[in-house]
Amino acid sequence: MKLIPEKEPSAIGRDMHQLIAGLYPICRSITGNGVRETLGILQGYVPLDIHEVASGTEVFDWTVPKEWNIRDAYVKNRQGVRVIDFRKSNLHVVSYSRPVQQKMALAELKDHLFTVPDRPEWIPYQTSYYKESWGFCLAHNQLQQFAAEEPYEVCIDATLEDGHLTYGEYCLPGTTEEEVLISCHICHPSLCNDNLSGVALAVYLAKALQSLTRRYTYRFLFIPGTIGSITWLCLNERRVSRIKHGVVLAGVGDAGNFTYKRSRRGHAEVDRAFAHVLKYSDDKSVVIDFFPYGYDERQYCSPGFDLPVGCAMRTPFNQYPEYHTSADNLDFVSSDALADSFDKCLTVLSLLEKNETYLNQNPKCEPRLGKRGLYQSTGGKVIRELGELPLLWVLNLSDGGHSLLDIAERADLPFHTIRTAASALEECFLIRPSLLGPSALQ
Ligand code: ZN
Fold it and tell me: How far is the centre of ligand 1, averaged over its atoms, from the C-alpha of 124 (Å)?
């Protein structure tokens, strides 16, 4: 089943890539002006509410940290040449580095330098959010140029002070208060797949859903990883029971196969919807079980919440060498992969929207299909293509205890076939929507 978005998927992929390119240069972290600037740009796409939570706020076992902002950073050699320059790449500074201004020998400086020796051209991405520290990241080849005897001038012009944690939230109302949560992290600096691809996908899903009829209310969160979801869950604890389905979007722009990580529940409707859509897709894909590591699904799926929230990605985060390095750049994410992730996620959301439960109005023996134009050899084009079997499955299992996805799984048929059959039967008044879903009977 495919929805027809307002644009061709490839055009959407290009638009998503363009959004990523615009956000790429900004130095983001878990707090600070880079996050505000990012959310400000996103407000040009969807009307986000921006929330500010003060440093020191207790959120479950955690505390909202001080706010970090950076203006400049460098290491200069004896000649005053910047041998590491934050202006060339914001990955050069360990995120959350405390301010530094001093001269030191290479031996001392080296304790604060990070490289990836087996990828000597790449700059790694390092953070030190919860332990006050400082450091620089650089290409291993670049480090080899440093002269041992030289004193180096080190400067990190940053502030680490009481301020706020900033996050964006967009609520797109549906006809019910039941919610679909779509969450992505916005805390990484110049990295494309890990971080910006999820942001772009969330934005374009929100834009596409705006123009569709919605049963569910959609809540989009643009939050710093870990501390952001913990903060949101703590501040919104009374509302989380409305969340019926959810997905974390992360790493959805690389060339690898689509991967879906199940929620902790393992068999939630969203888990089954992703598995079903991927099963009937022509592309290779992987469905993996939940494990308590990864992105913000760790918090949504913590036992005190146990929300039905999975994670959509392509190559899992720890399985590509570019992960958390400067090689996760604009070339690493492609319009085609972004468009494919968009298409698959929107198809899943559409399935969830249409996954209704019906009641057979003629449950005592089979109704006569022929006299209602539902017999394959005499019916209209749709019925001739559909055949009788999907109609018989829907009639048989529409007892109020089976959703259309339940029926599709049991019949081993694509959801859209079962959905089409249900529509034909509904038009003939042979079934009608059940006011209670299957969960009411379990
Ligand atoms: Zn990351």
Answer: 11
